[in-house]
Amino acid sequence: MFFSNIMAVGTMEGDKQKLNLRREVGIIGAVSFIAGTMIGSGIFMSPQYVLSTVGSPGASLVIWACCGLIAMLGGLCYAELGTVIPESGAEYIYMTAGKVVAFMFVFSFILVMRPASVTGIALSIAEYVVAPFYEGCTPPPLVVKCVAAGSIIVLAIINCVSVRWATAIQVVSTVAKVLALALIALGGVVMLFQGNTQNFDNSFEGTNLGVSSIGIAFYQGLWSYDGWNTLNFLTEELKHPEVNLPRAILIAISLVTGLYLLVNVSYLTVMTPRELMTSSAVAVTWGNKVLGSWGWIMSVAAALSAFGSLNGTFFSGGRVCFVAAREGHMVRVSVRYKCVLTPSPALIFTTVVSLLVLIPGDFQSIVNFFSFTAWFFYAITLAGLLYLKIKKPELPRPYRVPIILPILVLIAAIFLVLAPIVDDPQIEYLYVTLFMFSGVLIYIPFIHYKLLPGLLTKLTVVLQLFLEVAPADKNL
Fold it and tell me: Which residue windows are transmembrane per the record (predicted)?
């Protein structure tokens, strides 16, 4: 009886209205989405890891500039894909021609990439929240992880309960992150004009040119640029995507790259390389040196920035799960229909997995494994673009890039996947690889051959009843 009722509710609501995604995001909104997603915890956490990995200030600045270039070229390649396949969902929707690969992506996304992203950002929040209370020493890992867990749970509840609250947090955090980075950049410029250039003498001395070291440095740097493909998750909502998609990518990534370089120069102007590498909260160290007793402001601003980044990760994280459910690759529990329309099942699941990842994880290893997995699938996506350019030249392409661009970014992606395991192979990367491919073991029996369809149907309906959700229609 209850099963039939919930199925009837879903059918009745579907009959009453079929929602189409409206194209409401203009060029200013598009630039804001990209820049707002990219600027988060990374620029406040990664600089010390990039510097310690490559060994010299000059090399670290080169890494940051190259990361910006890779993000720019990758974004332009994705702009062509977004106009050839004008659907939301980014990598997942581009891979659906290969059903197994698409399932591997969504399997890895919900169990590795998204939880790793959430956990890494939560650890950033925790570091900056506790930093003022442990000035001059490293905060206890247990305290950091407890604060990180609390931030994950609080934001998960907010995003499950109210879209309005989540949006308000995003606005406040965006203001905080822009003001914080502008203050750091401006402070660095002032210090440079005052003649504080001693840290740039012999700036390439001690550079570590090991393949693995360079790969890990790129992982840490590209973590700060993650979000360059944001618009491809909402292509169906973008006005004139053939024009605004590449234009927004060019504007946003150029601005972010310039800002990141200025901020890193400011860090190196104020702090010695040794101070930068040993700082657990680099913005706080910068604030204490430049602002004195007001240095705690940087801790608050950095924590708010990371808090907003985590909120945005939760806010947008349901999209891939939502699209995968539409395509039949996940249980069809997509959106709450009572009181608030939020993707609560995806948020609850992400929260549980993220808390499990948090227990053994540390920031550097989490970022490395996230980047390894992400660039594996970026490489597959770019290979798909090359296939379309060579084998399907007749497809309409409102925007196109020279074939050399996807080739260059594909080479970079392959390097980023292989580099960490060439010089210094670690067993953890093998575990991550095996886990990604284990998705095939689930896809073949349950998705392809549809074993136990009755059990899956009952599970779907039970979850719909328990979570008060209903399946969503495909909106094109």
Answer: 25-46, 58-79, 100-122, 142-166, 178-197, 209-228, 249-270, 294-318, 339-359, 365-388, 400-422, 428-449
Residue with tokens 């979000």: 227
pTM of the model: 0.79
CA distances from 139 to 83, 132, 152, 217, 368 (A): 47, 10, 19, 24, 22
Instruction: Pick one of 1.10.10.10, 3.40.50.1220, 1.20.1740.10, 3.30.1360.120 as the CATH number of 24-470.
Output: 1.20.1740.10
The HSE-up count of residue 474 (CA atoms within 13 Å, CB side) is 10
Query: CB–CB of 323/96 below 8 Å?
Result: no
| Region label for 470, one of left (φ > 0), alpha (ψ between -120 and 50) or beta (otherwise) | beta
Inter-CA distances, 346 with 130, 160, 234, 337, Å: 29, 10, 18, 14
- Dihedral (C-alpha) 410, 413, 415, 421: value to the nearest 10 degrees? -140
Rounded to the nearest 5 percent, the helix, strand and coil shares of the chain are 75, 0, 20
* Tokens encoding 1: 């009886």
Query: Could you tell me the end-to-end alpha-carbon distance of the chain, in angstroms, rounded to an integer?
Result: 33
Structure token pair of residue 247: 């234009």
**Pick from 175, 456, 127, 200: which is nearest to 308 by CA?**
175
Task: pLDDT tens for the chain, 476 residues: list them.
Answer: 333 333 333 443 444 444 445 565 677 777 877 887 788 778 888 888 899 888 888 899 999 999 999 999 999 998 888 888 777 667 777 776 677 887 888 888 888 888 888 888 888 888 888 877 877 777 888 898 999 999 899 888 887 777 677 767 767 777 777 888 888 888 888 888 888 888 788 888 888 888 888 888 998 899 889 888 877 777 766 778 788 888 888 998 998 899 899 999 999 898 888 888 888 778 888 888 888 878 788 888 888 888 877 877 776 666 666 666 666 666 555 555 455 455 667 778 788 888 888 888 777 778 778 888 888 889 988 988 898 888 888 777 788 889 999 999 999 999 888 877 776 777 777 888 888 888 788 877 777 677 766 665 665 565 555 555 555 554 44
Q: What's the DSSP call for residue 292?
A: G
Nearest Cα neighbor of 310 from 126, 46, 161 is 126
Four-CA torsion 137, 142, 146, 147, nearest 10 degrees = 10
Containing 336, the helix (H) or strand (E) segment is strand 335-336
